[in-house]
Amino acid sequence: MRHEVAPLRHGTMRERNLAVVLGEIARRQPVSRARLAEATGFTKTTVSSLVASLAGAGLVREDGPVRDGERGRPATAVSVNGDRVAGLGLEINVDYLAACVLDLGRRIRHRHIVAADNRDRAPERVIAALTGLAARAIAAAGEQGLSVAGAVVALPGTLDQGGGRLRSAPNLGWDDVPAGELLDAGLPALPLAADYDNEANLAALGELWFGDGPALGSYVHVSGEIGIGAGIVVDGRVFRGAHGFAGELGHVVVEPGGSPCACGGRGCLEQVAGQEAILRGAGIAAVTATSSASPDGPLSALVARLERGDERALTAVRRAGEALGQALATAVNLLDPDTIVLGGIFSGLAPWARPATEAALADGAGLVRRSPPRLTVSRLGGDAAALGAASLVVERVLDDPSRLVTRC
Amino acid sequence: MRHEVAPLRHGTMRERNLAVVLGEIARRQPVSRARLAEATGFTKTTVSSLVASLAGAGLVREDGPVRDGERGRPATAVSVNGDRVAGLGLEINVDYLAACVLDLGRRIRHRHIVAADNRDRAPERVIAALTGLAARAIAAAGEQGLSVAGAVVALPGTLDQGGGRLRSAPNLGWDDVPAGELLDAGLPALPLAADYDNEANLAALGELWFGDGPALGSYVHVSGEIGIGAGIVVDGRVFRGAHGFAGELGHVVVEPGGSPCACGGRGCLEQVAGQEAILRGAGIAAVTATSSASPDGPLSALVARLERGDERALTAVRRAGEALGQALATAVNLLDPDTIVLGGIFSGLAPWARPATEAALADGAGLVRRSPPRLTVSRLGGDAAALGAASLVVERVLDDPSRLVTRC
DNA sequence: TTTAATTAGTCCAGGTCGCGTACGAATTAA
DNA sequence: TTAATTCGTACGCGACCTGGACTAATTAAA
């Protein structure tokens, strides 16, 4: 099975070269055409032509003359134009909906989170609520002179590759919902087709652009919520496996023969370190659909107990951290990342869980590599996936601006 | 961190298009230029020009007229020329050296395995022996009119990305050996630079071209020897992780708190299902460097006991199979492959180990995906990695023939 | 047997796009 | 004011794909 290689004609060449120059501008802005020519290897002529196309599409802007070196004619700096094109990120999660708009400079231009218990609500109604949010976001963007190029939607469950069909979302109580179709029907037409992805994958991308950034290298981002997922990012791209189900960290077995899990296995990580398991272990009543109207009610109760030194809570959280470290050690042996990022509930519990996680990680992923990977804690809030989704739109535009450049 | 996108000039376009046409020829051979034009979307003119370049380099051959449809002028079929260019695969392993030559049609033109206990032998001497094998292989290819385009070397240990520095090869007793440099010095100059990779990765590729082929989809290939490694192949390409250490299946923990492992952990898969552990469990004396002059001496002893129904041996092998299944379930949850391929010692032990492996796999990797991946057993012999290495050279030529095409 | 239809491959003009050199523009140093 | 330096553009060139016309080789029908 060979990786499909597409025929290259002049048009494709131009498209790719637009992306090359735009990428270089994004990386070095503000930057002169002369520097771009040096950096890319193109001639100044070619750079000028490409920049002109990009400027025509509003993707790039001239910033006026800038003295670069000591002598000679001053350069006209070119930068990514953050005031014309934007990306829309949407998220459906268990207890909220979120939308955010990012301009091409990845500045947040609009951000709206609506608390709402979506468990066992009809998918159609939830999706209608989301498209409403989307319409308001697009309008808000418009008021700032931004036109939205495309949207990506984060969904909390396993998706069929491509179509955006939500195969199962246990925490939502949804099963085999054609979320992609429903959303395609409800969203306005945009230059780029809408895309759908797992919440864990997009939260991981959010970390790349709004967390520690490129310093992360290749990393595994744990998004612990009621379930535990992991987004695997290699070289700036999400690793999805053959069918898009890669990164199911929650069902790595950490206690062979342990308590049964809904997945059919026994001793899965989720049974030890999932939100419900931790709360149960800490002696806090399990959350029911009705009792959790306030988003992190039970979690803040847990944190309160931890802060006051409650032994039972500490033990439960430490055990969860240890189990997480064991599962992560396995992931490190198989995936060899530079960094592990703890997100979701684990970022809030990190002060108490992290030592155990780090110890277990060092234990299990020691000598094969030189050293275990760095362990960092996410500083992102609940809508990390929406941010990641919007970032993905921005990345798509930067990676292939040709869709927005008028052919001449 | 954006994926580096290289500027595209006319030359690059031509290079890529040569690869497109050559790939299509390889996929459909024998095939007419007219069909190629349809399949690729190029005009007939362009196809003719590209085919002429490829033919000039000896990569492709005209096969004479062939009646394709019912009416009309008969086509001249074009095929990959298997008689001019070849790839060389080399392998250093614990108890043998191997070389093989593959023509562009992936037919084996030369194959030589030399049994030799390389444990604790000086790296320089082993590498000198291998370059001797290589010289003979290149000569044998020459006698058949084949010129060797490049070589890939399989090494049994963890490698630094790129340079071919062997960081550690515990089963060889080698530590931080500049294998790449030594081999570069000893091998004759070839059009393509020599490359180095882990034995497990290359054995996995061997499976792709000499085992079940594309039907495997994305897969994890287990190469159990004294250590246990896994080659992860997604979309026809090896997944290496950030530093090239991905796929260390042997150090996945299957018995938390179990027996200590050289890696610093406890209860690693290798401690339960590695060759030494199985032999110990079956009551067969552990292998020492001197006692294993005959390659699979102790293993065939084990198989003999299994065939005669020895309880102790059966128990050890079943336990190993079960542990392997547990580790693989974890790998499935994280990597989401289509298929698992059992290679190395596990292919010989499959009749006894497989049921336990399959059960454990189904247990741990059940409901998150629709079903656990297919489990198959490799039919390849010991030099799977050498075959994979030579295949990789062939794949490189097919993926980028421009190096061999004389610029005009 | 001739004629029309059909399919394969080549030839030649044309268009796109990057390359290279030359040149004008804008600025600093002498 | 003049020379040096650097930036960006203009214009001709060459690489390479496109498209239509043309030749070649064969089958089906008249």
TrEMBL record, chains A, B:
Keywords linked to the UniProt accession: Kinase, Transferase
Cell inner membrane in keyword set: no
Position of the signal peptide: none
Residues of the HTH marR-type domain: 21-62
One GO MF term attached to the UniProt entry: kinase activity
Gene3D superfamilies named among the record's database cross-references: 3.30.420.40, Winged helix-like DNA-binding domain superfamily/Winged helix DNA-binding domain
InterPro entries to which the protein is assigned, alphabetical: ATPase_NBD, HTH_MarR-typ, ROK, WH-like_DNA-bd_sf, WH_DNA-bd_sf
Presence of the UniProt keyword Kinase in the record: yes
Protein family (similarity comment): Belongs to the ROK (NagC/XylR) family.
Protein name as annotated: Sugar kinase
Organism, scientific name: Actinoallomurus iriomotensis
